[in-house]
Design goal:
There is one protein chain. By secondary structure, the protein is α/β, with parallel strands linked by helices. It folds into 2 domains: 260 residues, Rossmann fold, CATH 3.40.50.300; 89 residues, Arc Repressor Mutant, subunit A (Orthogonal Bundle), CATH 1.10.10. 27% of the residues lie in helices and 21% in strands. The protein has 10 helices and 15 strands. Strands 5-4-8-9-3-10-11-12-13 form a 9-stranded mixed β-sheet. Strand 8, helix 4 and strand 9 form a beta-alpha-beta unit. The longest helix is centred in the middle third of the chain and has 18 residues. The chain is elongated, with a radius of gyration of 25 Å.
């Protein structure tokens, strides 16, 4: 039977022992490997390279870099099965149930963030029915300080979280931020090891993926480096899938030909510790997008502007389609979505006038952000222009694309 370690003598500065669970019924399972005649089952990925059942994952970034916006988009991809949101493969049965545990904002604020992403990507809310769950218990603590004042123990909220996971059939739990989920000293390796161990046990026992969002320390952050993470190294050491999100540097902006205002909206996602996959060979870029939520009221007529993200790729890395495909694209752009109407490149347009959809029809392997990058390139090259016109359907003026100089002449 397991027993608690003895208390340190008065005045003794020894590092605290950490106890998460002291269940005497636990026994050591020993496997005779020579009797294992079959290969082990494959890892149970939900979002390839990011979320995996039975595994603790995390995203670390400085404030204001869009880490919550990015995570919410990835969670929406998992819940809807839409690969085009992030460009990553959805594995397993294609759609999975997500639980967001928001410990920094109330429900209304996290609801605004999710709504912004759904509006930008044209995701109807009923598509999230019984697939995307949110809780915002600001005072929730999964790991608490014991009566002795220094040991970390599982909080009463753990049983409640286990119940919700089982009751709703949750496949992925996302905790934002990690700092708010425990009472421990985040610089204490012993205490943080106990917190991480608790989350890992939750993932293994419930067969779900567990993820957290974490902050980095102040100062210059190096992409892909976990050394700038706040707190003890035990957080990094216990996490199997760890990524960093950092703002584009001025040097990178110069190399890509990106202006300073554009640079401030571009962030890069890098693997800091990915034990389950080979090292990444390419950087994944995202652009921060400002979405007009359209929730104005009489008292607040302007409503809210809320951030989401979209994939971004340096223009030089996206090749133009072949001449025959280019002709088809420009024919359709010139014809417009209807008589005296024009397609639009404006970010808020995602109906039949969305120009990026025209490109995707003829280039089905490209995702949304790649189609938009091509259109931006053609606009800059002078092949396309943007003008204000009168839309006969809504009987209002709006902006649309016109063909100025076809690439094939």
């Amino acid at each position: 039977m397991a027993t608690n370690p003895p208390e340190p003598p008065p005045g003794h500065p020894a590092a605290p022992e950490v106890v998460v669970d002291n269940d005497p019924s636990l026994s050591l399972l020993v496997y005779n490997l020579g009797e294992c005649n079959q290969l082990p089952q494959p890892r149970r990925w939900l979002l390839e390279g990011t979320f995996c059942r039975g595994v603790l994952s995390g995203l670390a970034a400085a404030g204001g870099t869009g880490k919550t916006a990015l995570r919410l988009l990835q969670l929406l991809a998992v819940a809807t099965g839409r690969k085009d949101l992030t460009g990553q493969r959805i594995l397993g049965r294609g759609r999975h149930r997500v639980l967001v545990v928001c410990l920094e904002d109330d429900f209304d604020e996290i609801h605004r963030r999710i709504r912004a992403a759904c509006k930008y990507y044209d995701i109807p809310m009923d598509e999230l029915l019984d697939a995307f769950w949110v809780t915002a218990p600001v005072q929730l603590k999964l790991a608490v300080i014991g009566a002795d004042g220094w040991r970390i123990r599982a909080g009463a909220a753990v049983d409640e979280l286990r119940r919700v996971i089982l009751e709703k059939g949750i496949d992925l739990v996302s905790i934002d931020p990690l700092l708010r989920v425990h009472e421990g000293n985040e610089n204490d390796n012993g205490q943080m090891d106990a917190v991480v161990s608790l989350l890992i046990r939750l993932a293994i026992d419930r067969g779900c993926a567990v993820d957290f969002v974490h902050h980095t320390s102040k100062g210059l952050n190096e992409p892909g480096s976990s050394d700038r993470m706040r707190g003890a190294s035990a957080i990094r050491d216990g996490t199997r899938l760890l990524y960093t999100l950092t703002l584009m540097s001025k040097k990178e902006a110069k190399d890509f030909g990106v202006t300073e205002p554009q640079r401030r909206q571009l962030v890069r996602l890098d693997s800091a510790k990915v034990n389950l996959l080979p090292p990444a060979t390419a950087t994944t870029w995202f652009r921060l997008i400002d979405v007009v939520l359209g929730n104005g009221s009489e008292e607040y007529p302007d409503g809210d502007r809320v951030q989401t993200v979209e994939r971004w790729q340096p223009p030089s890395e996206i090749r133009d389609p072949d001449p025959a495909t280019l002709k088809l694209i420009f024919d359709q752009l010139e014809a417009g979505p209807g008589p005296r109407r024009h397609y639009s490149l404006r970010p808020q347009v995602d109906d039949e006038r969305a120009a990026w959809r025209v490109v995707q029809v003829h280039c089905p392997t490209l995702v949304r952000y790649q189609c938009r990058e091509l259109l931006q390139r053609w606009l800059k090259a002078g092949w396309l222009g943007e003008r204000r016109y009168f839309d006969p359907v809504i009987r209002k003026n709006r902006y649309g694309l016109i063909v100025i100089n076809r690439p094939l002449t």
